[in-house]
Specification:
Blueprint (H helix, E strand, L loop, with lengths): L4 H28 L3 H21 L3 H26 L3 H6 L5 H21 L20 H12 L1 H22 L11 H5 L3 H4 L12
Helix pairs in contact: 1-2, 2-3
Length: 210
């Protein structure tokens, strides 16, 4: 039995609040988890719930990209970086309280920026009781997103790509720091080596069989 329009709207509202609650819980787990690996797993959980909200908003392309790209690729890279950095958890916990004030100031600055954007853009008067507005049957959110992304926001898109490349290079540079017991290659010595330094030919007199 198909659901009526009112029943569908109620079901969408219920799913939205469920996904939103789980998303907030996952976000809190990201910043409160003591283990960096657990923090990354909480971030995966938050991404999955964000994808559910995108599905409710009929943005299927964004939901699929969020799961395939961020959960399936970016988070794997995050875990590799966390494991390669060999973070000293004892030292990290020791410095948490010392820099807690900086974290609180950063959080307050972000909240102030978000509230400023909402106030200046006039988003405070948005009617939240209407929920998600359904799109027509032939609407393609992938095409609409591509048109906006590669025309209006082409330069910010390229800038984000450059920042990601810089972040990757920085992560690789952090893994190459000197640690006790770390073995590294000396490329110049490997290239300058000669064959006679590696191979020694020994001439031996032939022995007679008894």
């Amino acid at each position: 039995m198909p659901l009526t329009g009112e029943a569908t709207a109620v079901l969408v509202d219920i799913l939205f609040y469920v996904f939103a609650t789980l998303l907030v819980a996952g976000a809190l787990g990201v910043i409160t988890a003591r283990n960096p690996v657990y923090s990354a797993l909480f971030l995966v959980f938050a991404f999955i719930n964000s994808a559910g909200i995108w599905l409710l908003a009929e943005a299927e392309f964004l939901a699929i990209v969020l799961v395939l790209v961020y959960v399936g690729a970016v988070m794997v890279l995050f875990l590799f970086v966390v494991m390669m950095l060999d973070i000293n958890l004892t030292e990290l916990r020791r410095g948490f309280t010392r820099f807690a004030w900086l974290g609180w100031l950063t959080a307050l600055a972000l909240i102030a920026e978000i509230m400023t954007v909402v106030w200046t853009r006039g988003l405070a008067g948005v009617d939240l009781s209407r929920g998600f507005v359904p799109e027509p049957a032939g609407f393609s959110n992938t095409r609409a997103l591509g048109q906006v992304l590669y025309t209006r926001y082409a330069y910010p898109f390229e800038l984000a790509a450059v920042l990601l490349v810089v972040a990757i290079v920085a992560a690789i540079a952090l893994t190459l720091r000197h640690r006790p017991g770390l073995k590294s290659q000396d490329i110049s010595r490997q290239v300058a080596v000669r064959a006679e330094d590696r191979v020694r030919l020994v001439k031996m007199a032939a022995e007679k069989r008894s």
